[in-house]
Design brief:
With 209 residues, the protein is an alpha/beta fold. The chain has eleven helices and five strands, in the order E-H-E-H-E-H-E-H-E-H-H-H-H-H-H-H.
């Protein structure tokens, strides 16, 4: 039996996934948590094979926190199960060490297949994301910077789009305010806009937020 922990903010998601896998012969939902601190408690106290986690989970401020989980619990495979754009977020999640990315519009049976495959050591991405990763790998550094936002830049952009100020973002991400200002300037340059309103609108157009 593959032991699964589901980490999501919404009770309806917990209910739906638990109900679907209730009688599954190979997959068991053995833990349900509603915030990131509870994820750490579960992983510390019991053996979890696959962690299904939403990027919007309460208490999860950065993909870098997932890197720490992967480092401390290497036997636990992580699947991101999120409504955020797969095109934008999946490549950075995979680079952080996540084993799979399943969009919340997918059928639950797709999630079940992903659980089985990551438990066997495979990485789960759709074909278009795989092609994008292959193209990015062939680009030189300057091209990558122009075409692709970093983990931190995407995180800062998300918080800016949610109305957070520089000092609030610096507190959430554990970075100084000057660093946040630098990321903001990079975002303006990369997305070819000159002010915060246009930056947020561009981010929404690109489905970054």
């Amino acid at each position: 039996m593959i032991k699964v922990c589901l980490a999501d903010n919404y009770p309806a998601v917990h209910f739906g996934i638990k109900s679907y896998f209730k009688d599954h012969s190979d997959i068991g939902i053995v833990a349900n948590v509603g915030n990131f601190s509870m994820v750490k408690d579960v992983l510390y106290s019991r053996e979890i094979d696959v962690l299904i986690l939403d990027l919007d989970l309460d208490g999860l401020s950065s993909l870098y926190e997932l890197k720490a989980i992967i480092k401390h619990y290497p036997k636990t495979k992580i699947i991101v199960f999120s409504s955020y754009s797969e095109q934008i977020y999946a490549p950075n999640a995979i680079k952080a060490g996540v084993a799979g990315y399943v969009h919340k519009t997918a059928k639950i049976e797709t999630l079940g297949i992903a659980i089985m495959k990551v438990h066997q050591g495979q990485t789960i991405l759709n074909d278009s994301i795989k092609r994008n990763l292959a193209l990015i790998a062939k680009q030189n550094k300057s091209e990558r910077l122009y075409r692709k936002l970093s983990n931190r830049e995407i995180e800062v952009l998300r918080y800016l789009s949610n109305g957070k100020k520089n000092n609030e973002i610096s507190s959430i991400l554990g970075l100084n305010e000057k660093t946040i200002s630098t990321y903001k300037l990079r975002l303006l340059t990369k997305l070819n806009v000159t002010n915060l309103v246009d930056l947020v609108n561009k981010a929404r157009t690109l489905e970054i937020v």
